[in-house]
Design brief:
The chain is an alpha/beta fold and 209 residues long. The chain has two domains: 2-11 and 82-207, 3-Layer(aba) Sandwich (Rossmann fold); 13-75, Putative phosphatase, domain 2 (DNA polymerase, domain 1), CATH 1.10.150.240. Helices cover 47% and strands 11% of the residues. The chain has ten helices and six strands. The protein has a six-stranded parallel sheet, sandwiched between helices. Helix 9 links the parallel strand 5 (175-179) and strand 6. The longest helix has 18 residues, at 58-75.
Length: 209
């Protein structure tokens, strides 16, 4: 099983929004709207900024990206708890014999910090981040996870809260489950035809064989 991180396992959308806004402000850019930022959650930071600031010079976007990471990792203290049922659910899946991995738009530094903060590092057999492969919805990170673990696409399942997750899974030939408590709404999630949409993490765990 392959999980997205932000919006699927960790309730971090508010912190992401605030950090993007603070970074843009620090770099002298106009205010970025909450909803516009939320629509980019799941993409890598560079890809998100390309959508938020189309036509802006790459050097300017790189400066904002660097400032965003500084805010997220050091300056912003908005809580980012795991969603209800996630910690127990992941441990339960491991106990039932599932191998679990993470495919995320976060940077490696950002994911490593989140794994330490949440105490979940040892639960995952492998992880992939947007700054070490291609960003969602490109399926490369899923192909890399399957190759590393030796799991066939037909035996894998992607779980995520955005259309980027579900599209990535479809392009990789992997079934998916969409969680509706994250950042994209049900209509967006259904575009790429997940097998199931669930409202809570325990609902997902109960559905799995």
């Amino acid at each position: 099983m392959i999980f997205d991180w932000d919006g699927t396992l960790m309730d971090s959308a508010e912190r992401i929004v605030r950090c993007f806004q603070a970074a843009a402000h620090d770099c002298g850019w106009r205010a970025l709207a909450d909803e516009a930022i939320r629509k980019t959650i799941g993409l890598g930071v560079a890809e998100a900024l390309a959508r938020l600031l189309p036509g802006e010079a790459d050097t300017r976007r790189r400066a904002i990206a660097a400032r965003y990471r500084e805010h997220f990792l050091r300056l912003n203290d908005t809580p980012t708890p795991l969603f209800p049922g996630v910690a127990a659910g992941l441990e339960g899946l491991r106990a039932r014999g599932y191998r679990i991995a993470v495919a995320t738009g976060k940077s490696r530094v950002g994911l490593d910090a989140a794994l330490e903060e949440s105490g979940t590092r040892t639960l995952f057999c492998t992880t992939r981040c947007a700054d070490e492969t291609r960003s969602k919805p490109d399926p490369l990170m899923l192909h890399e996870i399957l190759a590393e673990t030796g799991v066939r696409a037909a035996d894998a399942l992607m779980v995520g809260d955005t259309s980027y997750d579900i599209e990535m899974a479809a392009r990789a030939g992997i079934d998916s489950v969409a969680v509706t408590y994250g950042v994209h709404d049900l209509a967006e999630l259904r575009i790429h035809e997940p097998r199931l949409c669930v409202q809570t993490f325990p609902e997902l765990c109960a559905w799995l064989p």
